[in-house]
């Protein structure tokens, strides 16, 4: 009886959301196609579509009932997940209406974003005249009403990559047969969005991480600031991809005519292309590299035409940012770390600056450095100045007055080595491996992902948003990187869902299980080398 009770408790514990989920639990060999699709349908419905707003079609940032904010970027990936499952259901005859349901869930989200954007049509006109952060489209809306949530002073809304991603997915979905654009007013508005995106190469924005430069000081001035804008490679790359995709595209699909075709300024596109090629493999001036480049050089943008530049950029990202639990966003990223002050929106300059090695002065009996906080006291400054004056005016300074470098002293940045690691980028690498036909890469990142994801009560995989180093382990981790265990965030545990990661995981597994192919979710063939691409239908209507 005791043995049976222990076995029963073990089975119950395996069903807990705290128990790491092995990918082998999800894979069923010799499973009929219908049962596979049914399993994915239940997963998408439970982990994604249950949280879709019935009014706007948007998806909330957090799945708790009190969250009323929806980000454009996250909602787009959720819509793409439903659309990908609809493409899989097209392969069977009797889909029980699920193809229609999934397609129109994606359409509802895309039109919800379009509705939110069109309510700010006046901002589009203002932004075309003066590309200022206070005149751009908002990137966060109320999930139920589509109203503005944050003012420009409270939130960094200028994110050209989000608008570009919307245009890119709009083209992909329409090319697959979905009807998203209905009338000429919407066609004209999309053309205006294209005008805004065309100048991405010269418009500073806050990028994918919404923090401006790496130093998180709120600066977006390209010329007057000492720091370059954050994620400029990401924004320019996604803008380039969106412009290439939508140029000459008919928004009414096969039923369109000449006045529903979108056109792009080719000179602006070429400037974006040249800017991107000159920036890579760096992400920007303040970012040596950034994991946000993965969706730029790979799915969904495929913005890099040069294979050598793609490989160089990808190798740099993997070499510098990959960890055991995922990829860091960028080096010395303080987001959600134990050392980050949650009460302040911006960092202080000293928090992102490397402290210099102290010098030991025998007269003072301790280490002193100009940049250290303790040297700001009057007595330290006076002593430091007196010693420097003695050195300059007295030839042959005695050895006792010579400064000595502190032994075994290693300066640390505040966030050095404790950056959060995001499993979502393992998923990006899985998708990239499928598109590149690199099965070894797919298998490698599947195995890396398996121990760090969890299982919901329904048995579906749940992706944590990030893994962090607790405050008690920070000092040890900074002394020896990778030595300490990291713990998952609340998003992806305790009944909450990280929707963006969940959506990409579903897309990745549909590709890995060969329920959809790369050409299904990229019908405009952006993943195909440029020299091998064919003309896509629905461009330049014959009417």
UniProtKB/TrEMBL annotation:
Q: What's its membrane topology?
A: Lipid-anchor
Species of the source: Pogonophryne albipinna
- Biological processes annotated in GO: glycogen metabolic process
Where in the cell is the protein located? Answer: Cell membrane
The protein's job, in short, is: Phosphorylase b kinase catalyzes the phosphorylation of serine in certain substrates, including troponin I.
Q: Which UniProt keywords apply?
A: Calmodulin-binding, Carbohydrate metabolism, Cell membrane, Glycogen metabolism, Lipoprotein, Membrane, Prenylation
Q: What is this protein called?
A: Phosphorylase b kinase regulatory subunit
For this record, the Gene Ontology CC terms, alphabetical, are: phosphorylase kinase complex; plasma membrane
What SUPFAM superfamilies does UniProt report for this protein, alphabetically? Six-hairpin glycosidases
Family matches, as InterPro entries: 6-hairpin_glycosidase_sf, GH15-like, PHK_A/B_su
The keyword NADP is assigned to this record: no
* Superkingdom of origin: Eukaryota
**Record GO terms (molecular function):** calmodulin binding
Task: Name the pathway.
Answer: Glycan biosynthesis; glycogen metabolism
GH15-like domain mapped to chain residues: 37-522
The similarity annotation says: Belongs to the phosphorylase b kinase regulatory chain family.
- One Pfam family name is Glyco_hydro_15
């Amino acid at each position: 009886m005791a043995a049976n009770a222990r076995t029963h408790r073990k089975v119950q514990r395996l069903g807990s959301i705290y128990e790491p989920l092995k990918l082998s639990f999800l894979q069923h060999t010799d499973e009929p196609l219908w049962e596979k699709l049914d399993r994915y349908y239940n997963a998408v419905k439970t982990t994604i579509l249950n949280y879709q707003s019935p009014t706007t079609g948007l998806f909330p940032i957090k799945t708790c009932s009190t969250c009323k904010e929806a980000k454009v970027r996250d909602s787009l990936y959720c819509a793409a997940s439903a659309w990908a499952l609809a493409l899989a259901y097209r392969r069977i005859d009797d889909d029980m209406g699920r193809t229609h349901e999934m397609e129109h869930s994606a359409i509802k989200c895309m039109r919800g974003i379009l509705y939110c954007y069109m309510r700010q049509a006046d901002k589009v006109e203002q932004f075309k005249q003066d590309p200022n952060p206070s005149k751009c489209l908002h990137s966060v809306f109320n999930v139920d009403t589509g109203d503005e949530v944050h003012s420009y002073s409270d939130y960094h809304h200028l994110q050209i990559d989000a608008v570009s991603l919307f245009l890119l997915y709009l083209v992909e979905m329409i090319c697959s047969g979905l009807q998203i654009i209905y009338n000429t007013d919407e066609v004209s508005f999309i053309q205006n969005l294209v005008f805004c995106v065309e100048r991405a190469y010269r418009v500073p924005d806050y990028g994918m991480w919404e923090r401006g430069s790496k130093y998180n000081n709120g600066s977006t001035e390209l010329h007057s600031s000492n720091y370059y804008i954050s994620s400029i490679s990401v924004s320019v790359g996604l803008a380039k991809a969106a412009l290439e995709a939508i140029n000459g595209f008919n928004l009414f699909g096969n039923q369109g005519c000449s006045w529903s075709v979108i056109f792009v300024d080719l000179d602006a596109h070429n400037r974006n292309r040249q800017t991107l090629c000159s920036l890579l493999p760096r992400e920007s001036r303040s970012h040596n590299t950034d994991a946000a480049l993965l969706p730029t050089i790979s799915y969904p943008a495929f913005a890099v035409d040069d294979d050598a530049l793609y490989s160089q950029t990808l190798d740099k990202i993997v070499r510098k940012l990959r960890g055991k639990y995922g990829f860091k966003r960028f080096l010395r990223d303080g987001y959600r770390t134990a050392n980050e002050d949650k009460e302040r929106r911006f960092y202080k300059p000293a928090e992102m600056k490397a402290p210099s090695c102290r010098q030991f002065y025998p007269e003072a009996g301790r280490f002193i450095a100009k940049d250290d906080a303790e040297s700001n006291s009057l007595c330290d400054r006076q002593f430091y100045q007196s010693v420097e004056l003695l050195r300059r005016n007295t030839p042959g300074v005695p050895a006792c007055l010579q400064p000595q470098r502190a032994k075994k002293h290693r300066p640390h940045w505040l966030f050095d080595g404790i950056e959060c690691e995001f499993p979502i980028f393992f998923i990006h690498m899985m998708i990239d491996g499928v598109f590149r036909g690199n099965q070894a890469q797919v298998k490698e990142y599947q195995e890396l992902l398996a121990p760090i994801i969890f299982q919901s009560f329904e048995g579906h995989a749940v992706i944590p948003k990030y893994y962090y180093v607790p405050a008690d382990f920070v000092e040890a981790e900074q002394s020896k990187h990778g030595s300490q265990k990291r713990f998952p965030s609340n998003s992806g545990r305790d009944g909450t869902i990280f929707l963006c990661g969940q959506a990409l995981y579903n897309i990745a597994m549909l590709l890995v299980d060969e329920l959809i192919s790369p050409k299904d979710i990229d019908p405009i063939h952006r993943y195909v080398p440029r020299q091998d691409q064919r003309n896509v239908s629905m461009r330049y209507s014959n009417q």
